[in-house]
């Protein structure tokens, strides 16, 4: 935001309409025949400037000094060469110079106020009789459209996207010349007016991300023969057309995500044979995909059928796309072997289907432009060829989680120098983590949990993976000590080494996890957005967003975190063979949310100043050999919602606080010398006579380790587990406000 106007949009339009009226002005001429701006219009602009916030001086050329007298030379202003009247008022100065359209009228034709702070309702813009383009994209308009428009308008472009306009869309009959209508990302509701179908010159319709509802029928499109881009996505609309409907248009972009098109596959799509992008995800479709559909448009570069109930097999698509396409068939019921796809694809998401067999077809066709590959949650199996990923140098996301793969992790993953998310969770991979993975120095998410990996945790992970945010080795067969080099992972937010055979002491350098100490949190550190505008030319393209999710398991229940994942700071070292004391340095991690050291052989006392961890919500130190008193500072852990200190050698009075007394006595069981609420045993000096200690289960930390693991893995224990699941969303990217196809 460069220049802002904080008053009502209605007042601003009145100011422009009345003060720049050509009836009020006269033309100032100079000796060389050059036409300067009209004096009254110059004064009006100076009045407007007074209401603008221009912290960076972009309107310094607007002034009353003699050398600034010609307002036609001011930044953001264009005048007619014949009359001197202002024809363009553009306060979004970053885009000046991009528009050189013929200026024929003697009043404002283009009014560009995007990315300011205008508020209020949209006035009757038909009163601005010569206006051709109105752009108030990304302001704070929080009112309504007028109930009706008073007169015919020659408006060609109307862009009010990314505001807070509410209410219904009025009759649009007064805009017969409209070519672009952008009303997306507002709060508009009700049904979409059928007068839309009469806009015979309309080429671009952005109505997505509102709350429109009701039926969309043939009437809404009856005369839209020029329509090229249709965005109705993210509205609870129901599209119902006669089975023999033949649309009057041939669309370039079809985006109907989260509209109801089903349950039958929409037959009218068979008439669209020249589209570039098709998104009918989450559209209530079920059943098999008709064979005619797979005869895709020869220009298609983006296809999204995800989040439906589509079934059957997918044919060979290796020759069906041009350019570098994005393909998303995830969250359906497709089955059979993986189909062939174009070698120059940018992204491929087939997760949450029933595909089976090997991934050799993907390995053989993987091109050097591949950026996203998500095959998670299928029935894929077998070994992965060691050279499978040799050509995947551009891969950013590789997710093979929740399948049945086995064998070693291919060493060719070391070729993936751009990789940021790598998930093999819940397979049967064995052997050691390949040394070649150290080449993937941009990794942020590394999830190798629930496999059969073994060996020592490599020290080079701390040495080379400085960008790691989430690191999960849970439920494998790693042994040896925790390498001190892991403390070099300053960006780490979730560290899970639980359910392994790790021994030795906990490193004393935990304070180096600086992101766990910061109360100021980074935004969207688990969401990646990538633009592929080159996919179909300047100004267009699609955007892929990938969100990593953490699955946090507590007592048999799993909680998913995606948008709120950045709030978590968790260390989980449970169910290992760790010994020694809990490092006091842990109390420097002021933003820590979850801490689990249960089922180890830890001794010594709970750090006395553990109460400094005021963000702590989950604490599990159960089934160790800890001794001493429960620190009084624990009474300051006001956000603690889960705690287990059971089966240690703790003693003394339980500190008094609202939180600690709210836990069940089982959270303190197996500590025979503990007294005070909520346990039964009274402390010396308590008013009522002491009652004998409650009989416990006599379980100690020496019970069979295999049984402990089974108990933990069954989700019945008190610890928590972490898993990462990625969600890939590929959206057609809205071009700049002058569309590429306009």
Oligomer status: single chain
* pLDDT < 50 stretches: 19-33, 93-106, 531-540, 689-721, 724-742
Over the alpha carbons, how many angstroms does the gyration radius reach? 32 Å
**Sheet with the most strands, sense and barrel status:** 23 strands, mixed
Overall geometry comes to globular
Strand content: 25-35%
Number of helices: 5
End-to-end gap: 25 Å
Question: Outline of this structure?
Answer:
The protein is mainly beta.
Structural description of this entry:
It is a single chain. The relative contact order is 0.06. The protein has five helices and 51 strands. Helix 1 (about 10-20) packs antiparallel against helix 2. It is about 5% helix and about 25% strand. The radius of gyration is 32 Å and the shape is globular. It is mainly beta and about 750 residues long. The two termini are about 25 Å apart. The strands form eight sheets. It has a 23-stranded mixed β-sheet, with no helix packed on it. The protein has a twelve-stranded parallel β-sheet with strand order 20-22-24-26-28-30-32-34-36-38-43-45, with no helix packed on it.
List keywords for this structure.
single chain; 742 residues; mainly beta; 23-stranded mixed beta sheet; twelve-stranded parallel beta sheet; 5 helices; 51 strands; 6% helix; globular; disordered C terminus
